[in-house]
Amino acid sequence: MADHIPLNPVRKNSKRIPYINSARRSRYSLEDESSNLDEMPLMMSEEGFENEESDYQTLPRARVNQRQRGLGWFLLGGWKVLCGSCCDCLARICRRKKELKARTVWLGCPDKCEEKFPKNAIKNQKYNIFTFVPGVLYQQFKFFLNLYFLVVACSQFVPSLKIGYLYTYWAPLGFVLAVTMVREAVDEVRRCQRDKEMNSQLYSKLTMRGKIQVKSCDIQVGDMIIVEKNQRIPADLIFLRTSEKNGACFIRTDQLDGETDWKLKVAVGCTQRLPAVGDLFSIRAYVYAQKPQLDIHSFEGNFTREDTDPQINESLSIENTLWASTVVASGTVIGVVIYTGKETRSVLNTSYAKNKVGLLDLELNRLTKALFLAQVVLSVVMVALQGFVGPWFRNLFRFVVLFSYIIPISLRVNLDMGKSAYGWMIMKDENIPGTVVRTSTIPEELGRLVYLLTDKTGTLTQNEMIFKRLHLGTVSYGTDTMDEIQSHIVQSYAQVPSQPSGGGTSGATPSRKTQTSGPKVRKSVSSRIHEAVKAIALCHNVTPVYESHVGVNGETESAEADQDFSDDNRTYQASSPDEVALVRWTESVGLTLVNRDLTSLQLKTPSGQILSFHILQIFPFTSESKRMGIIVREESTGDITFYMKGADVAMASIVQYNDWLEEECGNMAREGLRTLVVAKKSLSEEQYQDFENRYNQAKLSIHDRALKVAAVVESLEREMELLCLTGVEDQLQADVRPTLELLRNAGIKIWMLTGDKLETATCIAKSSHLVSRSQDIHVFKPVSSRGEAHLELNAFRRKHDCALVISGDSLEVCLRYYEHEFVELACQCPAVVCCRCSPTQKAQIVTLLQQHTANRTCAIGDGGNDVSMIQAADCGIGIEGKEGKQASLAADFSITQFKHIGRLLMVHGRNSYKRSAALGQFVMHRGMIISTMQAVFSSIFYFASVPLYQGFLMVGYATIYTMFPVFSLVLDQDVKPEMALLYPELYKDLTKGRSLSFKTFLIWVLISVYQGGILMYGALVLFESEFVHVVAISFTALILTELLMVALTIRTWHWLMVVAEFFSLGCYLASLAFLNEYFDLSFITTWPFLWKVSAITLVSCLPLYIIKYLKRKFSPPSYSKLSS
């Protein structure tokens, strides 16, 4: 996979290899692994794999060939690197950040804070009132093209260098700058308005005198803030109190981590137990918080109350925090502010927008430098042929100004107007409605992409889970047979109506005492369905929530108070949409979860009876255990049951032997379903008491607590009865599969970066066909040290043509020690899935790809957590979705559905790049042809630095005479949109940059030299008496040649192109009447003038038409083969 990475092979059968490092000699030994790894390469040669993996410490260090930094390096761009480094260093010194520190925050007392903390204001503006003009001018004149125009325009203020009129130089430059400044000003005002809106949101602040309203930007560290339901949390808070009785609330974190699942947060016990809200000011308490950091999934702190004896200490973790930019989903919460503004987790994870410059602009910038070099050489040649007589230096500069049309100032104007036209076309395309172009400077980037980095939740998927399959081993139920399950459930609970708490016990009776030894009799399908549905309805972390509603007499009734368990106003809250889907399904088949708190849970049967269960223990889902469990006691019978559900890899060894689980899991996974295995185990009172004692003892141990707790729980997880296998589908966005297929065929490599779990990400990668059916998937094992990363990378290198799935933590370790090797390997994978990625990691991956591959990257996402990635990529696309508009507003292009990206890239990306390449080269050709004529003219007339065409002729040539036909190239297309979508392979050619390269540029230079020479020499040979006839003949032939060359360049005619051609010709013919200053009007109405112009034009254009015809016939481009 990475055979070309230069790393040394291993000598076979060598246990110790001497290693020479400049002046010292050291040997590897197994004892000192960390020091060894500093001198150890990632093994990348085939021979080395014949060694045992345990011998990886003996691999010799690979030498990476470092470039020698000498004078050549300095002259060839090293000076730029050094200047850049110096500027960065100065900027760092000027913007040296205050060191972030841990803090002690007293409740409701911002004045007690010893340090000054940042203001809680959101600021997305690039400039302020003082930096706007210098900033915009710098962004414009850092381009060689614009700086060159500025110098040439300024030179016209020197009388001895003046050639022509000032307006011919300053008007186009002023126009470009004015357009740019207006565009930037509009963007800046919009940003300012958005920031002002966010910073002006009002919140209730608790003070000694009661509640007061404060703006979001005026909130300080130590303030106690009240946040209502559905309100955005304005700063990072520690959760003190909630209106919910159970002391917990749900929050939505979609703008922080991109997950639409609700997260459960728990209030600090000490403050939640206070009788009233006002008592928060009667206690002396403080929060100790760690220093601000990037990680949104962890927090360490302490809550201390001093006015009690002994003082109360509570440890604080991530479940006691409410991060800024999340939204309260249930109840009203009160929190104390610990971090504000720039120190909040959401801001620390946001990268600032950079000014994006398209690859085409950089390529044109390089070509203009080459043209400038040619211009200077030509000027030196002219002065040398003069013999360096007189004030030759002044003449040299006059020649430079005279040939300044080689680099036409209209290049920038035409390209900028072209970009605006492409943006307008994209927004007007009826096939991709709702698309918005927010950055009009980079539409050509859409046609040059090699890597597409996409979010999962809300981008590829709708994040809507639907229960699809229930498998009991002998029988399987799909969406069309769910009514059978419903009838079985109704039947089960209708059998024993006389029992006090409903007939829920009858279905479970047969198997109650026989679980550990295995069922003695084969249970009926009905009882097995009943047990499976009951297990699914009990084993979860879902809470039903009832909206308060207004009664008949106008009083607000609390749903919990009168036990109004009506289906109309019930919603489910959980940290995983999978669990909600399972509970919704049990409701649809008759067993409804109606109430839940921290200690109990109630189900409603089809006949309306309530089954109550006491929750004894809950073992939450973790990415390590891959399962969750719950122990409940049924109140009516006193039976204790341990239910468990989890991933098949974790559950296979826990359940009793069976011969169908593995096969059915594979079948469901191939259908793109997320599978969960459900099992149960009945416990006697003695068994449970024994377990509880051991469990509590393990929880109190100081050393290896997690291991001891896990060991106690595992003692229960043996020989469990397998109840069923469930299949849930995360619905994909419309047409995701064909769109990904289209992009893959276009040669675009797709990386999925998600904050979701590894199993979920892998499942979606398969179901969306991001990973094709025939491809293997290599799941990168969790690594935490350099040695582990080394072994795992060696294992990965053996795999060929397989997709990579890696977690954020492992990725971080690999990048720390083996950045180059890892990126080299990953880039050769057909698809890469990175799960559990933080927003900053997503942006880091984008930057890595840009640095290591030098290819163009595109990032697409829909949540606030994707903003950093979108801004870091060369081209950012945001989707307006359920997760808000944050990504859409930060992106360069905003679309409404993922499927629109196909047309955006294949059609609009292709057209924008092809058109801009043709337009840029044609505008250069227009300048080079007139400069060639000027050179021929000057060389014939004793190398005089006198302009051939003056005043309005030059202005008219660059504008009214040729501008419209040349600009009409923005309507040209080489293939129809349908063809571009049908054959996405055509897109691969674009990424090679063949439409604009030094080769195509050289062809245009040769054409310009040929035509300029023919036009000038032809006019000089054919003129008879007066010199003014030369100007008339050559200029008219030049205009006709340019109009014919536009026609030659066009591949698909548009009616506006025809209009532009005839309009320009009409304008020129009409203006001849007013150009008596330059032309002899009596001569241009004669036959000799007409035939001479026609002859010269024919000689300049006809050979090119013949060459184009022959090339199309004998060496047609790929697109012409398709269109024919």
TrEMBL record:
Catalytic residues (UniProt): 455 (4-aspartylphosphate intermediate)
Biased composition (Acidic residues): 557-566
Domain P-type ATPase A as annotated: residue spans: 212-345
Localisation: Golgi apparatus, trans-Golgi network membrane; Membrane
Cofactor: Mg(2+)
Domain P-type ATPase C-terminal span(s) in chain numbering: 889-1116
Annotated positions binding Mg(2+): 455, 457, 862, 866
Catalysed reactions listed for this entry: ATP + H2O + phospholipidSide 1 = ADP + phosphate + phospholipidSide 2
Span of the signal peptide: none
Broad EC category: translocase
GO biological process: endocytosis; phospholipid translocation; retrograde vesicle-mediated transport, Golgi to endoplasmic reticulum
Keyword Amino-acid biosynthesis: no
Positions contributing to ATP binding: 455-457, 579, 621, 645, 674, 754-756, 836, 842, 865-866
Membrane topology: Multi-pass membrane protein
Keywords noted in UniProt: ATP-binding, Golgi apparatus, Lipid transport, Magnesium, Membrane, Metal-binding, Nucleotide-binding, Translocase, Transmembrane, Transmembrane helix, Transport
Superkingdom, taxonomy of origin: Eukaryota
EC number: 7.6.2.1
Residues annotated as transmembrane: 167-186, 370-390, 396-415, 923-943, 949-971, 1001-1021, 1027-1048, 1055-1075, 1087-1107
PANTHER family attached to this UniProt entry: PHOSPHOLIPID-TRANSPORTING ATPASE IIB-RELATED, PROBABLE PHOSPHOLIPID-TRANSPORTING ATPASE
Family: Belongs to the cation transport ATPase (P-type) (TC 3.A.3) family. Type IV subfamily.
NCBIfam families in the cross-refs: ATPase-Plipid (TIGR01652), ATPase_P-type (TIGR01494)
Protein name per Swiss-Prot or TrEMBL: Phospholipid-transporting ATPase
